[in-house]
Design a protein that fits this description.
This protein is an alpha/beta fold. The protein has 16 helices and 6 strands. The chain has helices at residues 10-16, 55-67, 81-91, 97-100, 102-111, 128-140, 151-163, 167-198, 200-224, 266-276, 278-286, 291-296, 298-318, 323-333, 342-349, 354-369; strands at residues 30-32, 35-37, 51-54, 230-235, 243-245, 252-257. It has a 6-stranded mixed beta sheet. α6 packs across α7, α10 crosses α13 and α13 (298-318) crosses α16 (354-369). The radius of gyration is 20 Å and the shape is globular.
Amino acid sequence: MKALVRVFGLASAAAFAAACASVGGGPGGTVTNGGAGPAGQTTQPGIIWPIKTREHVDLWLHGFAMLQEDTTFVPFFKRGYSTNMTVLKNRANVVSQLDANRDKLRARLALNPQLINAQFVPLSFPSWSDLAQTVDLFIRAGGDPRAASSQAQANAIAFLAAYFPTGADRDWLRLFVQALNDESSRFYHSYWLQQQHEKSNVLDLADTLWQRTYRPRIQRFLNNTQQAQGEILLSLPLDGEGRSLTQGKQSNVITVTFPDRPNDAVEAIYVIAHEAASGIANTAVSDNITPEQRRSGLGERYQSAAAVRGGALLIQRTSPEILDGYMRYYLRSVNRPAGANVQATFNATFSIPDTIRDALVRQLDVVLGGI
């Protein structure tokens, strides 16, 4: 899934961070291609679409996974994620502010479901420190860009105001960030570091599969869909519905599932394909539904299925040997048995009108046929 709000980016975050008042503490780890390192670690020059992990992105998504009811067709988060995390915290006898304020935070999510779109927020920041400083600035300004002392700060405030437009939303954000700080210090930071250590071989293998085999095969598609460069983040909470931020040809972020085992490393490739194809899928749906279908929510359901079908088409054209695995992965994601005929089950489960399917095929032909 791609972010709908794109008024602020990673470069802007670095530009104004020094002008924001610090709120202190919090995670900042980055792991790149299997090697642990400090916040702000960079990838070797010349690597296209490097695979990384970022602790602050995982912490933010972890917070949402612990709070929201994941009722989407293709799940945002791994099945049973919140239950598994609760079990781990109970074993460690940990209770954080995220737990103590869960009911209050959930209540606001229920009143304003649009807050779920704020899952994309951390993709525009290089670290927890930058994100927390920006939230502090935003809260102190009352969400009003006119209260800023510079254009960079005004842009930052306007960015968060698009996700948190009301006073009640700002209160929710303040409490959420406060709760995540405590969650990190009591539990998540040590958990995240442990997971990076235990899964370093999975990160290495996913990176090898991506850079040596699958990225070269879909690079033309990426080039011709304004996604020539960016970075891939493997995220512990995510399942088949990734998080993507498009900020121009060279500054894109695709956040996908972090597979559990080396044998499952190819699952990251499946979700990358799904996310890469989501743009043409959204176009195919929006061009072929009626205003009434859009208002009724049917368009959103079609977009979810079309993104899965679009990823399958991209893999079929570029790496057909993993198409069966892709279809089985997404069927598991929505808790459907594959049955005797995987393709038939897949097409029926992720059903879209013929007009949308044909539009997807045409767009893919155009994109892959380009220079």
